[in-house]
Write a structure and sequence with these properties.
458 residues, alpha/beta, 20% strand, hydrolase activity, acting on carbon-nitrogen (but not peptide) bonds, 18 strands, Urease, subunit C, domain 1
Length: 458
């Protein structure tokens, strides 16, 4: 009996040692990075906090101070007067789809789409975008890969999953010879499940929305008017009824999140806003009255100025199909008018790019993303344009409520307790916003979630 008792005592002793060892590992202090001698654009204020120091602990910002910070053992990055700012947030991306959608859905394997999307995600992070909102197409799979431990990297991803579109809507990418999946026994292409959910009527709208949440969507995207890139839907057409939009809003509200809509015309934007939509994509044809309504209701507007105003007529004609070119041309002169109305009535402007190109050109197109900042600067100034891509963008993510998987800290700001998504820029971005359009040269440090992905200083 004494032998058995002794063995039991040894077993308990070894167990205690094992637990103690595990506890010691778990209690190890998180890694620290100290940025010294930096001028901070915090994502909110118009000016820079000069001669500041910023301490990152783990994946969060611990301290922002103009006084010296003592952090023994921290990795020290001497900014030497460079600008430290929040990572950029692109709130209108489509990571997993490419032009032309009506042909790519048949001619490119889903495996090819996935491979292209992964390279795009890596490139977006290295271009300074630490967060993106994907508003149509599969992206949850990509988010899970990036958040896992298999060595993939890219920005934080918030995905709407499949577009919700009516038959012959902006998200209906079938060719003329293809049957409607709802009339012919079910889906015939992976696009019809992962990229575009064709829905006619309140019941089908609810089904599409709920199916997207089942996939892991953080918000919903619905088409309520015609678009430039689609073949068969004219810009003037309304898509979805007030009742159908209200059904999507209801499904999203039941999940404690929101619907964003694609809308170009004044009528389509107003229909969506009156149905309770808080976030509008595009809106190049809004009138003063609708802009006023948007401002009163606190609606966010995410224009895509560079995709329209950044093209010459010659380049647009070469890049777009004849039908798409005609639609592009019809909104070119109207976008500045819509922007002036939105600014006048206090509509909150959010940064987004909506970059779509052919599969073998999309990485090069993604490198032009920051050009949208220069377009926004014309209306908002440099600080306002940067807010649109940082703190104001984060306000939209806040609308996702408990569906946001990243709840540890604030986003889009350099502040104590915020996520350590940071860019160190070689120059003053408030004096020269174009610095961000050459990320390879001017972004000397890129940090996401406290992890350094680029550092050309050390």
């Amino acid at each position: 009996m004494r032998t058995i008792a002794f063995i039991r005592m040894l077993f308990i002793a070894f167990a205690v040692v094992g637990v103690s060892g595990t506890t010691a590992v778990a209690d190890e202090a998180p890694a620290q990075t100290l940025f010294t001698n930096v001028n901070v654009f915090d994502g909110v204020n118009d000016g820079l906090l000069e001669n500041a120091n910023v301490l990152v602990e783990g994946n969060l910002i611990k301290t922002v101070s103009t006084a010296a910070i003592s952090a023994g053992g921290a990795t020290v990055i001497n900014g030497e007067g460079r600008t430290l700012m929040p990572g950029l947030m692109d709130m209108h991306t489509h990571l997993s789809i490419v032009r032309e959608l009506s042909t790519a859905r048949h001619e490119l394997s889903p495996l090819a789409h996935g491979a292209i999307a992964m390279k795009r995600a890596e490139g977006m992070l290295m271009n300074g975008f630490t967060t993106v909102m994907d508003v149509g197409g599969p992206a949850i799979y990509l988010k899970d890969l990036i958040d896992g431990d298999a060595g993939f990297f890219g920005p934080r991803i918030y995905s709407a999953e499949a577009f919700i579109t009516q038959t012959n809507g902006h998200g209906d990418f079938r060719t003329r010879m293809e049957y409607n999946p709802n009339n012919s026994g079910g889906i015939r292409s992976w696009y019809e499940y992962y990229t575009a959910c064709i829905a006619d009527g309140v019941t089908e709208i609810r089904r599409c929305g709920r199916e997207n949440f089942r996939k892991g969507a953080t918000h919903l995207k619905m088409m309520v008017g015609g678009g430039v890139s689609s073949r068969f839907d004219p810009l003037h057409g309304l898509q979805g009824s007030p009742e159908e939009i209200a059904a999507a809003v209801e499904v999203a509200r039941n999940m404690k999140t929101f619907v964003t809509v694609h809308a170009y015309t004044d009528e389509s934007v107003r229909m969506a806003v009156e149905a309770g939509v808080p976030h509008i994509l595009h809106a190049p044809l809004i009138t003063e009255d609708t802009a006023k309504l948007m401002g009163e209701k606190g609606v966010y507007m995410q224009p895509n100025l560079e995709a329209v105003l950044g093209l010459t007529e010659e380049n647009a004609a070469a890049f777009l199909s004849p039908a798409s070119f005609a639609k592009w041309k019809s909104i070119y002169d109207e976008y500045p008018v819509a922007m002036e109305a939105a600014i006048k009535h206090g509509v909150k402007i959010v940064f987004g790019t909506d970059l779509l190109s052919q599969w073998n050109q999309t990485l090069a197109f993604d490198k032009t993303a920051a050009l949208e900042l220069l377009q926004l600067e014309k209306y908002l100034g440099a600080a306002g344009a940067l807010r649109a891509a940082t703190s104001t963008a984060a306000e939209v993510i806040d609308l996702m409520g408990p569906n946001d998987p990243y709840q540890e800290g604030a986003k889009g700001v350099v502040a104590e307790g915020a996520y350590a998504d940071l860019l160190l820029v070689d120059g003053n971005v408030l004096e020269d916003l174009a610095l961000l359009t050459d990320p390879g040269k001017n972004l000397v440090v890129i940090m996401k979630d406290g992890v350094i992905y680029k550092n050309t200083l050390n």
